[in-house]
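Practice problem: predict the structure.
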Amino acid sequence: MTYNDYRRQMRGRFIAYRRTHYPLEHELFDPRREYVFKPEYDFCNLFEMSLDKLLPCGRRHRWFRSMASSQALAVSIFGTILKRGDLLLLADLSDRNGQPLLPDFILAGEPVFDYRVTTLNERTPTSVDLFLPGRNGHVAIECKLMEREVGPCSRVPNFCNGEYTPAGCWLTRRGVAYWQHIPKLFAWDAQQPQSPCSIRRPYQLVRTLLAAAIDEQGQVYGRPTALLVYDANNPFFAEGREARLFHEVQAAITPPTVLKRVSWQTIARALEALGRYGDLLGYLEDKYGIVA
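Answer:
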């Protein structure tokens, strides 16, 4: 399946979902976009409207109200798992390589959606979709659905030519601490020029791992883990370009840091095995085509 085929399939599914579940509620939707809710009804884009309370006030992605929103999907799935007390099922899952997803993870605080990272000295703090504070290391989760890419550096091409020099990085010149910490997690030398820059394309993966790893003292805390969750039906993330990029980044990581990925479908299978998520699984299949 090509990405364009996938995109058409998803859009058709969203439109069918609206016509089935909201056949007469036209006032809920943006009149210009058939599967996008109006801003005041964005909570309708969640599995249960009460899950809206899990997002800090005002902390929604720009297109949270679109049925294509990966943030809305993340809150629907992980929010329901948290609500039903089954977060530890993530520890029992296997990643793409058959290894335990979060071995020995012990939750040590409240999970936070759209977690703002304060340890990287950014003027506008970056955020991760879900942050799990752990006793032995934190987990930062980045979620994708219909996106075409993980997320490259937004400074290219307007502020950067895509190459790296120790004194020339736009981030470093503004005091952002990415390259101060990257050598603690990756086999990338911050003192050597790079063409292209190592983080140009996998920027979002790198910052997700930095979010999990760096504590308030600028040190690597425990065994940090970055987890990428993706739609196995999306050809770019299943075995395509972004899957290859993920493996390139994974190969550059140095212990004790960890980068893993898992599909929504794998999580759905784990929910099915628990036997009490039929309502959520029906919602995921009907709306997103995510089948256990």
